[in-house]
Amino acid sequence: MMMDMPLRKHRQRQALPRFARRTWIGMLGLVASSATEARPQRTARTRQEPPAGAVALRSAPAQKTTLRLPFAGAWGVVQGMDTASTHSGYAAFALDFVPAVPVSEREFRSRRRLGDHPCYGRPILAPADGRVIWATDGARELPPFHDSRRHEAGNFVILEHVSDELSEFRHLKRGSVAVRVGDFVRAGQIIGRCGNSGNAITPHLHFGFLGSADPIATRPLRFSDYEVLVAPDRWQDGDGEPKQGQIVRPKVGP
Q1: Using H for helix, E for strand and C for coil, what is the string for 199-252?
Q2: How distant is the alpha carbon of residue 73 from its chain centre?
Q3: pLDDT score, position 165
Q4: pLDDT for 173-183, tens place per residue?
Q5: What's the pLDDT score for residue 87?
Q6: Shortest CA distance to 185 belongs to which of 124, 243, 101, 242?
Q7: What is the pLDDT at residue 53?
Q8: Which residue among 62, 74, 187, 201 is least enclosed by CB atoms within 10 Å?
Q9: CATH code for the part of the protein at 2-39+64-250
Q10: How far apart are the first and last CA of the chain?
């Protein structure tokens, strides 16, 4: 069995628990294929999105915002921080997530409609209180396994939590963005739904923690109150930095 994940080319993999290697590693191998990521252009001719910065803000001040996972239930980290060509440079501190749903390779390859993918339409939640500074909807979504072969901003939201601490959500479903620029949102509020807009091959959530939104530049991040699956039906507290290959969920219970 394999974890439902978008196709993506990885430069490195994180070590997995032995049970995870047996249960999920097949899907991680399938992931090492051919996806691209939404990377803002540095010289955009229109203001459809902020431009990309030159580098990530690796020496940013200590994080003030308490971030929680932007979804409910168990999801897998398909691409971690500082990995491959798309989570490097200005986007080094970004993560890609999909629901942790077991699936065979044959079944995954047969999912030719967006609605066949478990991620599609799942609610995406604000990880902390914040104000909306960017909200774009109406961009097209290609069928699974299709590459636009040109940069597309897609549907996305950027929330400002405090000065120089912002969250970015990419590849949202067309027509699902539930907030507008200027709105104040509370932690846990639905801001949109997982989709396949922008430069995505299959539905997934791209999450970035930003130290600057114009130009976009990610910064180190730490999540709170979440758990990592370390053995069948056994969860332990996360260390703050979800890693590629991990299955994570918001902490439940006392």
Answers
A1: CCCCCCEEEEEEEEECCEEECCCCECCEEEEEECCEEEECCCCCCCCCEEEECC
A2: 15
A3: 97
A4: 999 999 999 99
A5: 73
A6: 124
A7: 67
A8: 62
A9: 2.70.70.10
A10: 32
Instruction: Say how far apart CA 193 and CA 170 lie, in whole Å.
Output: 10
Distance CA 182, CA 135 (A): 9
Which pLDDT belongs to residue 215?
A: 87
Host H or E run for residue 19:
helix 18-31
Instruction: Single out the residue of 249, 194, 199 nearest to residue 86, CA to CA.
Output: 199
Locate 115 and state its tokens.
């609605």
Q: Shortest CA distance to 84 belongs to which of 149, 15, 26, 8?
A: 8
- DSSP notation for 152-164: ---SEEEEEEETT
The pLDDT value recorded for residue 55 is 60
Instruction: Tell me how many degrees the CA angle 236-195-146 measures, rounded to the nearest 5.
Output: 115
Q: Can you name the residues that pair with 131 across neighbouring β-strands?
A: 160, 184
Give the β-pairing of 247-250 and 75-79: antiparallel
Q: Which positions of the chain have pLDDT values less than 70?
A: 1-47, 53-55, 83-86, 104, 109-110, 253-254
Q: If you search the block for the tokens 């047996």, which residue do you land on?
A: 22
Which residue in this structure is represented by tokens 């899907």? 27
Domain edges within the chain: 2-39+64-250
pTM of the full structure: 0.82
Instruction: Find out whether 128 and 65 touch, Cβ atoms under 8 Å.
Output: yes
Closest alpha carbon to 153 in 135, 127, 130, 128: 135
